[in-house]
Design a protein that fits this description.
The chain has about 525 residues and is an alpha/beta fold. The chain has 16 helices and 19 strands. It has a domain of about 70 residues.
């Protein structure tokens, strides 16, 4: 300490040290380094002790969990109950939304394989529960072909055996451009011979539309008579780029599907190439004509009329590809359908002029064209009137749509419970349509879910920074009246509805001053900012 005092005056100055002061400084530095090293050694011991204590704690915690598991009620459940619980652990396979799956094979991190890794008893129960093994996934690809087939040769036969005699759901995924010889692989022939009589659903996910025509249809035709239990079949293409640019040549022979006595649901992505007379339309309850809305592949309005006429039992009809224009003729008869409950289709006024769907409940309309297509709305209004109040869920979406072109038609949807609208602008005049007052409002007394997308403001305000670029209001647990957006005291009304069970959330990119004052975040309404890239549906 005495040595340090001898050089203290140098620390607060810029004076040069003397020879003696230099020696003193070196001695002090050595002493401080020694102390610092001793602290480092002590810290290393403490860190080592801390890590060792943490490891010991983790071991005790794991041991505690294992002992707590001894008393867990799940141990008392009989195998029959566990088996039913396991069935609810299976992942959902939504074949209406075809998503590229690479690879298309079971994963150890999901049921049912995950259930076989918990313990010996669970493995025994899982392997003995046939319903866990009724989804069969087959992967066909150009790269790594030998390894893929070797892996599938190991698990596919045992997978089929575990399913017992239950119906099977089979998906065949084609990745990349392949040759037809891959469909003639010995393993695939063995699987067909072993289980095709139990296939209840068959889903082909192809790389391109050309594979549907050149590979899938000929393959199915070559195995005619092997699928007596098939109820659902879909043949789609997962490559959007190839969808748009790859044209089809000729029309494939679709008569194979007429030989399926139980076929009820059918989806195809090559609408422009189908002979609808080849399909068992009189037996179908669901038909989805897929494709890209920007693709040159499309169907004609007359074909839509033909399908609805030849499908008396159809309950769901969806068209996601384009529809060719149609010139209406005077005296065209009205097409009445008494079973159709779900309709997803592009908006074409002359299409609706000839349709009378008495029991329609779900209506999903989309449009890529400017609003002038919606301008002649007489046919759509008549179409809605023909539903006789049966509509419960309505979705209207598209580019450049102006609400004034279709909102008057919604006056006839008094029983709608869910309304999803994507429009160009959300201005006061539009929002005021939902006011529960006499006049120009929409009489939607049963509305419980309202979702709006658009620019909040008028056309002259869209370039202002304070404009709300995205607006979505989700309402659940509403009273019998629709939410009054503009009634003079909107905040009080929102608080009132919240006390009565309303869950209200507004998602916005930018909340302008006028909008903020309209829906002030005072605890009754939550505002969630969203990134621009995440906007949309």
């Amino acid at each position: 300490m005495g040595l340090e005092l001898a050089i203290t005056h140098l620390i607060s100055s810029n004076l040069p040290p003397s020879i003696f002061e230099k020696q003193v400084t070196r001695t002090v530095i050595e002493n401080l380094n020694s102390k610092l090293h001793s602290f480092d050694v002590e810290l290393a011991k403490l860190v080592s002790l801390l890590e060792e204590t943490r490891r010991a704690r983790a071991e005790v915690h794991d041991t505690l969990r294992m002992h707590q598991a001894i008393l867990h009620p799940v141990r008392t459940l009989p195998p029959e109950i566990l088996s039913k619980i396991f069935i609810h652990c299976l992942p959902d396979n939504n074949w209406n939304e075809v998503v590229e799956q690479t690879p298309n094979r079971p994963t150890p991190s999901e049921a049912p394989l995950l259930l076989t890794q918990i313990c010996r008893s669970w493995r025994t129960i899982a392997l003995g529960t046939s319903r866990l093994w009724t989804t069969l996934k087959i992967d066909i690809r150009t790269q790594g072909t030998a390894a893929v087939w070797h892996r599938q040769r190991i698990f596919l036969p045992s997978w089929i055996t575990r399913s017992g005699r239950l119906p099977l759901v089979v998906s065949i995924f084609i990745l990349g451009e392949i040759s037809y010889s891959l469909l003639e692989h010995r393993l695939l022939r063995e699987i067909l011979a072993q289980s095709s009589h139990r296939w209840k659903e068959l889903h082909w996910i192809c790389y391109s539309p050309r594979q549907i025509q050149n590979f899938v249809i000929p393959f199915l035709a070559a195995h005619m008579g092997l699928f007596p239990a098939l109820e659902t079949c879909s043949i789609v293409s997962h490559n959007a780029a190839v969808k748009i640019h790859q044209a089809m040549i000729g029309r494939p022979d679709m008569r194979f599907f007429a030989t399926l006595p139980k076929l009820r649901k059918f989806r195809v992505d090559v609408a422009a190439t189908c002979r609808w007379s080849d399909l068992p339309l009189h037996r179908l309850t669901s038909l989805c004509i897929g494709g890209d809305s920007k693709s040159p592949l499309c169907i004609k309005v007359t074909e839509c009329f033909q399908i609805l006429t030849l499908c008396p039992h159809l309950e769901a009809f969806s068209v996601s590809c384009g529809i060719a224009d149609y010139v209406a003729q005077d005296g065209d008869p009205l097409i009445e359908h008494l079973c159709l409950k779900v309709l997803r289709i592009v908006f074409l006024d002359f299409l609706f002029k000839r349709l009378a769907l008495r029991v329609l409940q779900f209506l999903d309309l989309w449009s890529l064209c400017p609003t002038n297509r919606w301008g002649c709305r007489g046919g759509f209004t008549e179409f809605v009137e023909h539903t006789n109040g049966s509509l419960r869920h309505v979705t209207i979406r598209g580019a450049e749509i102006d609400y004034v072109d279709f909102m008057p038609s919604l006056r006839h949807c008094q029983n709608v419970r869910s309304l999803v609208i994507s429009v160009k602008y959300l201005d006061d005049a539009f929002l005021s349509l939902f006011k529960p007052q006499q006049g120009a409002q929409l009489p939607l007394e049963h509305l419980t879910r309202l979702q709006l997308t658009g620019v909040l403001g008028t056309p002259g305000e869209v370039n202002k920074p304070s404009t709300l670029n995205y607006f979505r209001l989700r309402c659940r647990g509403l009273l019998s009246r629709a939410l009054p957006f503009l009634n003079g005291e909107p905040i009080k009304q929102l608080m009132f509805y919240r006390r009565n069970g309303l869950d209200c959330q507004v998602d916005a990119e930018v909340i302008g001053t006028s909008t903020w004052s309209l829906f002030a975040p005072n605890g009754s309404v939550s505002f969630v900012p969203v990134m621009k890239s995440a906007v949309g549906f």
